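During the second year of the project, the team shifted from modelling isolated chains to modelling whole assemblies. The rationale, set out in the original proposal, was that interfaces cannot be judged from single-chain predictions alone. As a representative example for this report, we include one of the complexes processed in the last quarter. Its constituent sequences, exactly as entered into the pipeline, are reproduced here:
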Amino acid sequence: MRDTDRPLPFAAAARAVFDLSLEGMIWTRRSLLMALLVAAPVAFAILYRLVLVAHTAVRPVTPEDLYAVIVAMYWIRNVLPLAALFYATSLIADEVEGRTLTYLVTRPLTRGSIFAGKFAAYLVTAFSLALPAAVVTFFLLLSTNGWSTVGSAAGDLLRDLGVMALTLVAYGALFALLGVLLKRPVIPGPMRGSPASSSRCCRPGRAWPS
Amino acid sequence: MTRSRLAVLVSTVVVVLGVIAGIGALWLNPARAAVGPMPAEALVLPADARFVMGFDVKRFTSSPFYARYASQRGMRPEALRELEEKTGINPARDVDQIVIAGTSGSGAGSMGLALVTGRFDLYKLGRTLETEGKVDGYNHDGATVYAFKQETTPAMAIAFLDEGTLLFGQKARVEAAVSSRTRGEAPFRTNAVLMALAEKVRPGSTFWMIGDQSLLAGIPASVPAPGGSGDGATISLPALKSLTVTGDLDPQVSLAVTGEATDELAAKNLADVVRGFVAIMSLQARQKPELSQLASAVTVATQANQVLVSARVPYELLDALQPKAEATPAPAPAK
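Output from the structure prediction step:
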Protein backbone atom coordinates (compact mmCIF):
# COMPACT_ATOMS: atom_id res chain seq x y z
CA MET A 1 0.00 0.00 0.00
CA ARG A 2 1.28 3.46 -0.97
CA ASP A 3 2.39 5.84 1.73
CA THR A 4 -0.13 8.68 1.33
CA ASP A 5 2.12 11.10 3.19
CA ARG A 6 4.65 10.95 0.40
CA PRO A 7 4.02 12.44 -3.08
CA LEU A 8 3.59 10.23 -6.12
CA PRO A 9 6.76 9.27 -7.99
CA PHE A 10 7.78 11.97 -10.49
CA ALA A 11 7.07 9.92 -13.64
CA ALA A 12 3.66 8.71 -12.51
CA ALA A 13 2.64 12.18 -11.36
CA ALA A 14 3.84 13.83 -14.58
CA ARG A 15 2.00 11.19 -16.60
CA ALA A 16 -1.23 11.89 -14.74
CA VAL A 17 -0.89 15.65 -15.26
CA PHE A 18 0.00 15.02 -18.92
CA ASP A 19 -3.16 12.98 -19.50
CA LEU A 20 -5.30 15.61 -17.84
CA SER A 21 -3.68 18.53 -19.67
CA LEU A 22 -3.69 16.88 -23.10
CA GLU A 23 -7.44 16.42 -22.95
CA GLY A 24 -7.90 20.08 -22.20
CA MET A 25 -5.34 21.28 -24.73
CA ILE A 26 -6.04 19.59 -28.07
CA TRP A 27 -9.77 20.07 -28.52
CA THR A 28 -9.95 23.78 -27.79
CA ARG A 29 -10.64 26.92 -29.81
CA ARG A 30 -7.04 27.89 -29.28
CA SER A 31 -5.90 24.67 -30.94
CA LEU A 32 -8.35 25.15 -33.79
CA LEU A 33 -6.96 28.63 -34.42
CA MET A 34 -3.40 27.38 -34.20
CA ALA A 35 -4.17 24.45 -36.50
CA LEU A 36 -5.52 26.84 -39.13
CA LEU A 37 -2.49 29.08 -38.77
CA VAL A 38 0.05 26.25 -38.84
CA ALA A 39 -1.63 24.38 -41.69
CA ALA A 40 -2.08 27.44 -43.91
CA PRO A 41 0.99 26.51 -46.01
CA VAL A 42 -0.69 23.20 -46.89
CA ALA A 43 -3.51 25.13 -48.55
CA PHE A 44 -0.97 27.42 -50.17
CA ALA A 45 0.99 24.45 -51.49
CA ILE A 46 -2.16 22.98 -53.01
CA LEU A 47 -2.88 26.35 -54.59
CA TYR A 48 0.68 26.46 -55.94
CA ARG A 49 0.29 23.02 -57.50
CA LEU A 50 -3.12 23.69 -58.94
CA VAL A 51 -2.72 27.21 -60.21
CA LEU A 52 0.87 28.23 -60.69
CA VAL A 53 2.31 25.00 -61.99
CA ALA A 54 -0.65 24.07 -64.12
CA HIS A 55 -1.41 27.41 -65.69
CA THR A 56 1.81 29.36 -65.98
CA ALA A 57 4.91 28.42 -67.94
CA VAL A 58 7.26 30.55 -65.88
CA ARG A 59 7.19 30.07 -62.14
CA PRO A 60 8.00 33.11 -60.05
CA VAL A 61 9.65 30.88 -57.46
CA THR A 62 10.82 27.29 -57.50
CA PRO A 63 9.04 24.79 -55.23
CA GLU A 64 12.28 24.20 -53.33
CA ASP A 65 12.72 27.88 -52.60
CA LEU A 66 9.06 28.28 -51.67
CA TYR A 67 9.31 25.41 -49.21
CA ALA A 68 12.48 26.91 -47.74
CA VAL A 69 10.75 30.26 -47.28
CA ILE A 70 7.72 28.66 -45.66
CA VAL A 71 9.83 26.69 -43.20
CA ALA A 72 12.27 29.46 -42.29
CA MET A 73 10.14 32.57 -42.51
CA TYR A 74 6.62 31.39 -41.85
CA TRP A 75 6.96 28.56 -39.38
CA ILE A 76 10.23 28.96 -37.57
CA ARG A 77 10.33 32.71 -37.45
CA ASN A 78 6.67 33.53 -36.90
CA VAL A 79 4.02 30.89 -36.40
CA LEU A 80 5.80 28.39 -34.18
CA PRO A 81 6.96 31.05 -31.68
CA LEU A 82 3.39 32.35 -31.73
CA ALA A 83 2.01 28.88 -31.04
CA ALA A 84 4.55 28.44 -28.25
CA LEU A 85 3.56 31.82 -26.84
CA PHE A 86 -0.13 30.98 -26.67
CA TYR A 87 0.30 27.48 -25.32
CA ALA A 88 3.32 27.74 -23.04
CA THR A 89 2.44 30.99 -21.29
CA SER A 90 -0.89 29.52 -20.32
CA LEU A 91 0.47 26.27 -18.89
CA ILE A 92 0.45 27.60 -15.35
CA ALA A 93 -1.27 30.94 -15.92
CA ASP A 94 -4.57 29.26 -16.85
CA GLU A 95 -4.50 27.27 -13.63
CA VAL A 96 -3.89 30.47 -11.69
CA GLU A 97 -6.60 32.41 -13.48
CA GLY A 98 -9.08 29.56 -13.15
CA ARG A 99 -8.09 29.20 -9.49
CA THR A 100 -7.56 25.48 -10.05
CA LEU A 101 -3.87 25.52 -9.19
CA THR A 102 -4.80 25.11 -5.53
CA TYR A 103 -6.42 21.78 -6.27
CA LEU A 104 -3.39 20.60 -8.13
CA VAL A 105 -0.87 21.54 -5.46
CA THR A 106 -2.97 19.99 -2.73
CA ARG A 107 -2.72 16.64 -4.49
CA PRO A 108 0.26 14.41 -3.72
CA LEU A 109 2.20 15.79 -6.70
CA THR A 110 5.49 17.61 -6.73
CA ARG A 111 5.53 21.00 -8.45
CA GLY A 112 8.15 19.75 -10.86
CA SER A 113 5.98 16.87 -11.98
CA ILE A 114 3.04 19.22 -12.55
CA PHE A 115 5.12 21.45 -14.75
CA ALA A 116 6.74 18.52 -16.56
CA GLY A 117 3.37 16.93 -17.32
CA LYS A 118 1.92 20.18 -18.62
CA PHE A 119 5.00 20.96 -20.71
CA ALA A 120 4.93 17.47 -22.21
CA ALA A 121 1.26 17.97 -23.10
CA TYR A 122 2.14 21.28 -24.76
CA LEU A 123 4.90 19.64 -26.78
CA VAL A 124 2.70 16.77 -27.94
CA THR A 125 -0.06 19.20 -28.93
CA ALA A 126 2.30 21.56 -30.75
CA PHE A 127 4.13 18.71 -32.50
CA SER A 128 0.80 17.19 -33.54
CA LEU A 129 -0.19 20.45 -35.18
CA ALA A 130 3.09 21.54 -36.75
CA LEU A 131 4.95 18.45 -37.92
CA PRO A 132 2.21 16.88 -40.09
CA ALA A 133 1.71 20.25 -41.77
CA ALA A 134 5.42 20.38 -42.59
CA VAL A 135 5.41 16.83 -43.97
CA VAL A 136 2.36 17.40 -46.18
CA THR A 137 3.68 20.76 -47.44
CA PHE A 138 7.05 19.17 -48.22
CA PHE A 139 5.54 16.45 -50.36
CA LEU A 140 3.07 18.76 -52.08
CA LEU A 141 5.75 21.23 -53.09
CA LEU A 142 8.80 19.06 -53.66
CA SER A 143 6.98 16.48 -55.77
CA THR A 144 6.15 19.22 -58.29
CA ASN A 145 9.23 18.30 -60.33
CA GLY A 146 8.98 14.55 -59.76
CA TRP A 147 10.04 12.12 -57.08
CA SER A 148 13.73 12.47 -57.79
CA THR A 149 13.57 15.92 -56.19
CA VAL A 150 11.83 14.44 -53.17
CA GLY A 151 14.59 11.87 -52.83
CA SER A 152 17.40 14.38 -52.98
CA ALA A 153 15.62 16.70 -50.53
CA ALA A 154 14.51 14.02 -48.05
CA GLY A 155 17.42 14.88 -45.76
CA ASP A 156 16.12 18.43 -45.64
CA LEU A 157 12.73 17.20 -44.44
CA LEU A 158 14.27 15.37 -41.50
CA ARG A 159 16.39 18.40 -40.67
CA ASP A 160 13.40 20.73 -40.95
CA LEU A 161 11.30 18.55 -38.67
CA GLY A 162 14.15 18.56 -36.15
CA VAL A 163 14.56 22.33 -36.32
CA MET A 164 10.81 22.88 -35.95
CA ALA A 165 10.67 20.55 -32.96
CA LEU A 166 13.61 22.34 -31.36
CA THR A 167 11.94 25.70 -32.03
CA LEU A 168 8.83 24.55 -30.17
CA VAL A 169 10.91 23.19 -27.31
CA ALA A 170 13.07 26.32 -26.97
CA TYR A 171 10.30 28.87 -27.33
CA GLY A 172 8.01 26.75 -25.21
CA ALA A 173 10.55 26.69 -22.39
CA LEU A 174 11.08 30.45 -22.66
CA PHE A 175 7.39 31.32 -22.67
CA ALA A 176 6.59 28.80 -19.96
CA LEU A 177 9.17 30.57 -17.81
CA LEU A 178 7.59 33.93 -18.64
CA GLY A 179 4.19 32.43 -17.83
CA VAL A 180 5.39 31.47 -14.38
CA LEU A 181 7.26 34.70 -13.66
CA LEU A 182 4.92 37.34 -15.09
CA LYS A 183 1.29 38.17 -14.64
CA ARG A 184 0.84 39.15 -18.29
CA PRO A 185 3.43 37.06 -20.16
CA VAL A 186 1.82 37.50 -23.59
CA ILE A 187 2.94 41.14 -23.75
CA PRO A 188 6.74 40.61 -23.68
CA GLY A 189 6.39 37.44 -25.72
CA PRO A 190 6.30 39.03 -29.18
CA MET A 191 9.32 41.15 -28.25
CA ARG A 192 11.45 38.03 -28.14
CA GLY A 193 15.01 38.33 -29.33
CA SER A 194 16.37 34.92 -30.00
CA PRO A 195 18.73 33.66 -32.69
CA ALA A 196 15.82 32.02 -34.47
CA SER A 197 14.34 35.43 -35.02
CA SER A 198 17.18 36.32 -37.29
CA SER A 199 16.69 35.54 -40.94
CA ARG A 200 20.41 34.75 -41.16
CA CYS A 201 19.89 31.79 -38.86
CA CYS A 202 17.79 28.68 -39.15
CA ARG A 203 17.92 28.30 -42.88
CA PRO A 204 16.65 24.78 -43.06
CA GLY A 205 18.96 22.86 -45.19
CA ARG A 206 19.37 24.89 -48.33
CA ALA A 207 20.59 28.12 -49.75
CA TRP A 208 18.52 31.10 -48.84
CA PRO A 209 16.53 32.30 -51.81
CA SER A 210 17.13 35.95 -52.49
CA MET B 1 -9.24 5.92 -26.96
CA THR B 2 -10.10 9.56 -26.36
CA ARG B 3 -10.47 12.11 -29.14
CA SER B 4 -7.25 13.81 -28.06
CA ARG B 5 -5.24 10.66 -28.26
CA LEU B 6 -6.81 9.84 -31.61
CA ALA B 7 -5.73 13.25 -32.95
CA VAL B 8 -2.20 12.69 -31.66
CA LEU B 9 -2.17 9.21 -33.19
CA VAL B 10 -3.31 10.47 -36.59
CA SER B 11 -0.71 13.23 -36.69
CA THR B 12 1.98 10.78 -35.57
CA VAL B 13 1.00 8.40 -38.38
CA VAL B 14 1.20 11.27 -40.91
CA VAL B 15 4.66 12.25 -39.73
CA VAL B 16 5.97 8.68 -39.59
CA LEU B 17 4.59 7.86 -43.05
CA GLY B 18 6.09 11.07 -44.40
CA VAL B 19 9.48 10.31 -42.94
CA ILE B 20 9.36 6.72 -44.25
CA ALA B 21 8.32 7.96 -47.71
CA GLY B 22 11.12 10.53 -47.65
CA ILE B 23 13.73 7.98 -46.62
CA GLY B 24 12.33 5.56 -49.21
CA ALA B 25 12.59 8.20 -51.94
CA LEU B 26 16.12 8.94 -50.81
CA TRP B 27 17.00 5.24 -50.82
CA LEU B 28 15.48 4.59 -54.24
CA ASN B 29 16.84 7.79 -55.73
CA PRO B 30 19.17 6.81 -58.58
CA ALA B 31 21.39 9.72 -57.64
CA ARG B 32 22.12 8.11 -54.26
CA ALA B 33 25.37 6.59 -55.47
CA ALA B 34 26.24 9.79 -57.22
CA VAL B 35 28.68 12.39 -56.04
CA GLY B 36 27.11 15.82 -55.89
CA PRO B 37 25.53 16.39 -59.31
CA MET B 38 27.54 13.59 -60.95
CA PRO B 39 25.55 10.45 -61.75
CA ALA B 40 27.01 7.19 -60.48
CA GLU B 41 27.82 6.16 -64.06
CA ALA B 42 30.18 9.13 -64.40
CA LEU B 43 32.58 7.64 -61.88
CA VAL B 44 34.16 5.70 -64.76
CA LEU B 45 35.54 9.00 -66.04
CA PRO B 46 39.34 9.19 -65.94
CA ALA B 47 41.16 9.77 -62.69
CA ASP B 48 43.50 12.32 -64.27
CA ALA B 49 40.69 14.70 -65.19
CA ARG B 50 41.58 18.37 -64.77
CA PHE B 51 38.01 19.53 -64.91
CA VAL B 52 34.55 18.07 -65.09
CA MET B 53 31.49 19.84 -66.37
CA GLY B 54 27.90 18.73 -66.41
CA PHE B 55 24.79 19.74 -68.23
CA ASP B 56 21.32 18.66 -67.13
CA VAL B 57 19.49 18.46 -70.44
CA LYS B 58 16.13 17.69 -68.82
CA ARG B 59 16.25 20.79 -66.65
CA PHE B 60 17.51 22.82 -69.57
CA THR B 61 14.71 21.81 -71.92
CA SER B 62 12.07 22.39 -69.25
CA SER B 63 13.47 25.81 -68.35
CA PRO B 64 11.97 29.14 -69.34
CA PHE B 65 15.28 29.81 -71.11
CA TYR B 66 14.65 26.98 -73.57
CA ALA B 67 11.01 27.98 -73.96
CA ARG B 68 12.04 31.52 -74.85
CA TYR B 69 15.08 30.98 -76.99
CA ALA B 70 14.67 27.45 -78.43
CA SER B 71 13.67 28.78 -81.81
CA GLN B 72 16.65 31.10 -82.12
CA ARG B 73 19.54 30.21 -84.37
CA GLY B 74 22.01 29.71 -81.56
CA MET B 75 20.03 26.73 -80.27
CA ARG B 76 20.44 24.98 -83.66
CA PRO B 77 17.15 23.06 -83.75
CA GLU B 78 17.83 22.10 -87.40
CA ALA B 79 20.98 20.21 -86.42
CA LEU B 80 19.12 18.46 -83.62
CA ARG B 81 16.35 17.50 -86.01
CA GLU B 82 18.91 16.00 -88.35
CA LEU B 83 20.44 14.08 -85.46
CA GLU B 84 17.01 12.71 -84.56
CA GLU B 85 16.32 11.62 -88.13
CA LYS B 86 19.64 9.81 -88.44
CA THR B 87 19.98 8.20 -85.06
CA GLY B 88 16.57 8.39 -83.49
CA ILE B 89 18.00 10.45 -80.65
CA ASN B 90 15.99 13.49 -79.73
CA PRO B 91 18.25 15.26 -77.23
CA ALA B 92 15.36 17.13 -75.65
CA ARG B 93 13.44 13.91 -75.14
CA ASP B 94 16.03 11.18 -74.76
CA VAL B 95 19.07 12.76 -73.12
CA ASP B 96 19.03 13.38 -69.38
CA GLN B 97 22.51 14.53 -68.58
CA ILE B 98 25.89 15.12 -70.20
CA VAL B 99 29.08 14.98 -68.15
CA ILE B 100 32.39 15.90 -69.75
CA ALA B 101 35.79 15.29 -68.20
CA GLY B 102 38.76 17.21 -69.55
CA THR B 103 42.14 15.65 -69.08
CA SER B 104 45.73 16.79 -69.33
CA GLY B 105 47.18 17.26 -72.78
CA SER B 106 47.02 19.90 -75.43
CA GLY B 107 44.68 20.69 -78.25
CA ALA B 108 42.11 18.07 -79.01
CA GLY B 109 43.79 15.71 -76.61
CA SER B 110 42.63 17.75 -73.66
CA MET B 111 39.03 16.76 -74.36
CA GLY B 112 38.92 13.53 -72.45
CA LEU B 113 35.61 11.82 -72.25
CA ALA B 114 31.93 12.66 -72.45
CA LEU B 115 29.30 10.54 -70.74
CA VAL B 116 25.71 10.90 -71.87
CA THR B 117 22.84 9.44 -69.88
CA GLY B 118 19.29 9.03 -71.14
CA ARG B 119 17.27 6.53 -73.10
CA PHE B 120 18.74 5.30 -76.37
CA ASP B 121 17.64 2.92 -79.10
CA LEU B 122 20.95 1.12 -79.36
CA TYR B 123 19.91 -0.94 -82.38
CA LYS B 124 18.89 2.09 -84.42
CA LEU B 125 21.89 4.04 -83.26
CA GLY B 126 24.38 1.27 -84.08
CA ARG B 127 22.78 0.61 -87.44
CA THR B 128 22.94 4.28 -88.35
CA LEU B 129 26.62 4.44 -87.50
CA GLU B 130 27.43 1.26 -89.43
CA THR B 131 25.34 2.19 -92.46
CA GLU B 132 27.22 5.40 -92.90
CA GLY B 133 30.43 3.35 -92.99
CA LYS B 134 32.36 5.82 -90.92
CA VAL B 135 32.96 3.54 -87.98
CA ASP B 136 34.41 0.17 -87.11
CA GLY B 137 32.33 -1.63 -84.53
CA TYR B 138 33.78 -4.15 -82.12
CA ASN B 139 33.21 -5.59 -78.69
CA HIS B 140 35.42 -4.41 -75.90
CA ASP B 141 35.06 -5.94 -72.45
CA GLY B 142 31.39 -6.65 -73.04
CA ALA B 143 30.42 -3.28 -74.49
CA THR B 144 29.93 -2.31 -78.13
CA VAL B 145 32.48 0.27 -79.20
CA TYR B 146 32.44 2.14 -82.51
CA ALA B 147 35.77 3.66 -83.51
CA PHE B 148 35.56 6.45 -86.06
CA LYS B 149 37.52 5.78 -89.25
CA GLN B 150 38.58 9.37 -89.87
CA GLU B 151 42.26 9.76 -89.33
CA THR B 152 41.93 12.22 -86.54
CA THR B 153 44.53 12.39 -83.85
CA PRO B 154 43.76 11.01 -81.38
CA ALA B 155 41.26 8.46 -82.69
CA MET B 156 37.73 8.95 -81.42
CA ALA B 157 35.19 6.34 -80.43
CA ILE B 158 31.72 5.94 -79.00
CA ALA B 159 30.73 3.13 -76.63
CA PHE B 160 27.30 1.91 -75.65
CA LEU B 161 27.56 0.96 -71.98
CA ASP B 162 23.87 0.16 -71.77
CA GLU B 163 20.55 1.48 -73.04
CA GLY B 164 20.91 4.48 -70.80
CA THR B 165 24.57 5.40 -71.04
CA LEU B 166 26.90 6.38 -73.87
CA LEU B 167 30.57 7.25 -73.75
CA PHE B 168 32.24 9.43 -76.34
CA GLY B 169 35.85 10.55 -76.57
CA GLN B 170 39.35 9.41 -77.38
CA LYS B 171 39.36 5.76 -78.31
CA ALA B 172 41.95 4.79 -75.72
CA ARG B 173 40.09 6.59 -72.95
CA VAL B 174 36.73 5.15 -74.01
CA GLU B 175 38.18 1.64 -73.91
CA ALA B 176 39.81 2.30 -70.55
CA ALA B 177 36.51 3.54 -69.13
CA VAL B 178 34.66 0.51 -70.50
CA SER B 179 37.24 -1.80 -68.93
CA SER B 180 36.97 0.02 -65.61
CA ARG B 181 33.21 -0.37 -65.66
CA THR B 182 33.48 -4.07 -66.45
CA ARG B 183 35.88 -4.54 -63.53
CA GLY B 184 33.54 -2.56 -61.29
CA GLU B 185 36.10 0.17 -60.73
CA ALA B 186 35.42 3.87 -60.30
CA PRO B 187 38.64 5.63 -61.40
CA PHE B 188 37.26 9.11 -60.84
CA ARG B 189 36.93 8.39 -57.12
CA THR B 190 40.70 8.40 -56.85
CA ASN B 191 40.82 12.05 -57.94
CA ALA B 192 40.53 13.42 -54.41
CA VAL B 193 40.56 17.10 -55.41
CA LEU B 194 37.77 16.94 -57.97
CA MET B 195 35.80 14.50 -55.82
CA ALA B 196 35.89 16.97 -52.94
CA LEU B 197 34.79 19.78 -55.25
CA ALA B 198 32.00 17.66 -56.79
CA GLU B 199 30.61 16.83 -53.36
CA LYS B 200 30.18 20.53 -52.66
CA VAL B 201 28.15 21.19 -55.80
CA ARG B 202 24.43 21.24 -55.16
CA PRO B 203 22.67 18.38 -56.98
CA GLY B 204 20.03 19.68 -59.35
CA SER B 205 22.03 22.47 -60.96
CA THR B 206 21.26 22.87 -64.65
CA PHE B 207 24.94 23.26 -65.48
CA TRP B 208 28.08 23.07 -63.39
CA MET B 209 31.83 22.88 -63.74
CA ILE B 210 34.65 22.07 -61.37
CA GLY B 211 38.31 22.52 -62.08
CA ASP B 212 41.50 22.00 -60.15
CA GLN B 213 44.75 23.92 -59.95
CA SER B 214 46.23 22.36 -63.09
CA LEU B 215 43.33 23.63 -65.20
CA LEU B 216 43.65 27.12 -63.76
CA ALA B 217 47.40 27.20 -64.36
CA GLY B 218 46.59 27.86 -67.99
CA ILE B 219 44.73 31.12 -67.42
CA PRO B 220 46.71 34.36 -67.81
CA ALA B 221 48.40 35.63 -64.68
CA SER B 222 47.54 39.23 -65.49
CA VAL B 223 44.82 41.12 -67.30
CA PRO B 224 44.70 44.66 -68.71
CA ALA B 225 43.77 47.12 -66.01
CA PRO B 226 40.16 48.28 -66.16
CA GLY B 227 40.05 51.69 -67.75
CA GLY B 228 43.64 51.34 -68.97
CA SER B 229 44.35 53.81 -71.71
CA GLY B 230 46.52 51.57 -73.79
CA ASP B 231 49.65 52.21 -71.76
CA GLY B 232 50.03 48.53 -71.08
CA ALA B 233 48.94 48.72 -67.44
CA THR B 234 48.01 45.28 -66.16
CA ILE B 235 46.63 43.76 -62.99
CA SER B 236 48.12 40.58 -61.61
CA LEU B 237 45.54 37.91 -60.91
CA PRO B 238 46.11 35.87 -57.75
CA ALA B 239 46.45 32.16 -58.43
CA LEU B 240 43.42 30.01 -57.88
CA LYS B 241 43.50 26.54 -56.37
CA SER B 242 40.12 25.48 -57.64
CA LEU B 243 37.09 26.78 -59.42
CA THR B 244 33.46 25.78 -59.11
CA VAL B 245 30.71 27.09 -61.36
CA THR B 246 27.03 26.26 -61.01
CA GLY B 247 24.05 27.68 -62.80
CA ASP B 248 20.30 27.43 -63.04
CA LEU B 249 17.78 28.68 -65.56
CA ASP B 250 14.59 28.57 -63.52
CA PRO B 251 13.01 30.92 -62.45
CA GLN B 252 15.79 33.22 -63.69
CA VAL B 253 19.28 32.75 -65.06
CA SER B 254 21.53 32.40 -62.05
CA LEU B 255 25.22 31.73 -61.97
CA ALA B 256 27.45 31.12 -58.98
CA VAL B 257 31.23 31.04 -59.33
CA THR B 258 33.40 30.05 -56.39
CA GLY B 259 37.15 30.40 -56.70
CA GLU B 260 39.45 29.17 -53.99
CA ALA B 261 42.54 31.35 -53.70
CA THR B 262 45.77 30.48 -51.93
CA ASP B 263 45.00 32.67 -48.92
CA GLU B 264 42.57 35.26 -47.62
CA LEU B 265 44.55 38.21 -48.98
CA ALA B 266 44.68 36.72 -52.48
CA ALA B 267 40.92 36.14 -52.32
CA LYS B 268 40.33 39.78 -51.40
CA ASN B 269 42.60 40.95 -54.20
CA LEU B 270 40.78 38.80 -56.72
CA ALA B 271 37.41 39.99 -55.44
CA ASP B 272 38.60 43.60 -55.88
CA VAL B 273 39.59 42.85 -59.48
CA VAL B 274 36.16 41.38 -60.19
CA ARG B 275 34.48 44.35 -58.50
CA GLY B 276 36.56 46.61 -60.73
CA PHE B 277 35.19 44.96 -63.82
CA VAL B 278 31.66 45.23 -62.47
CA ALA B 279 32.27 48.91 -61.82
CA ILE B 280 33.47 49.34 -65.41
CA MET B 281 30.25 47.72 -66.52
CA SER B 282 28.31 50.21 -64.42
CA LEU B 283 30.15 53.07 -66.10
CA GLN B 284 29.31 51.62 -69.48
CA ALA B 285 25.69 51.74 -68.40
CA ARG B 286 25.65 55.44 -69.30
CA GLN B 287 25.46 54.37 -72.92
CA LYS B 288 23.36 51.25 -72.32
CA PRO B 289 20.92 51.53 -69.41
CA GLU B 290 20.27 47.77 -69.42
CA LEU B 291 23.91 47.23 -68.45
CA SER B 292 23.28 48.99 -65.13
CA GLN B 293 20.76 46.28 -64.25
CA LEU B 294 23.25 43.65 -65.32
CA ALA B 295 25.94 45.19 -63.13
CA SER B 296 23.57 45.28 -60.15
CA ALA B 297 22.69 41.62 -60.78
CA VAL B 298 26.29 40.63 -60.02
CA THR B 299 27.47 40.34 -56.43
CA VAL B 300 31.01 39.67 -55.30
CA ALA B 301 31.91 38.48 -51.82
CA THR B 302 34.77 36.77 -50.05
CA GLN B 303 34.65 34.07 -47.43
CA ALA B 304 38.01 33.14 -45.95
CA ASN B 305 40.14 32.22 -48.99
CA GLN B 306 37.16 31.91 -51.33
CA VAL B 307 35.81 34.44 -53.78
CA LEU B 308 32.11 34.09 -54.42
CA VAL B 309 30.66 35.72 -57.52
CA SER B 310 26.97 35.30 -58.14
CA ALA B 311 24.72 36.69 -60.80
CA ARG B 312 20.96 36.52 -61.04
CA VAL B 313 19.66 37.77 -64.34
CA PRO B 314 15.90 37.97 -64.90
CA TYR B 315 14.65 37.01 -68.33
CA GLU B 316 13.31 40.50 -68.88
CA LEU B 317 16.88 41.77 -68.64
CA LEU B 318 18.11 39.09 -71.04
CA ASP B 319 15.43 40.13 -73.50
CA ALA B 320 16.57 43.73 -73.16
CA LEU B 321 20.16 42.70 -73.89
CA GLN B 322 19.18 40.87 -77.07
CA PRO B 323 20.13 42.74 -80.25
CA LYS B 324 17.10 44.53 -81.56
CA ALA B 325 15.76 43.27 -84.86
CA GLU B 326 16.58 45.76 -87.55
CA ALA B 327 13.61 47.75 -88.63
CA THR B 328 12.40 46.86 -92.09
CA PRO B 329 13.30 49.74 -94.39
CA ALA B 330 10.32 51.54 -95.71
CA PRO B 331 9.67 50.83 -99.38
CA ALA B 332 10.98 53.51 -101.70
CA PRO B 333 8.30 55.81 -102.93
CA ALA B 334 7.18 54.99 -106.42
CA LYS B 335 8.49 57.38 -108.98
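The radius of gyration of chain A is 20 Å. Helices of chain A lie at 10-26, 29-38, 40-55, 63-88, 90-97, 101-106, 111-142, 147-181.
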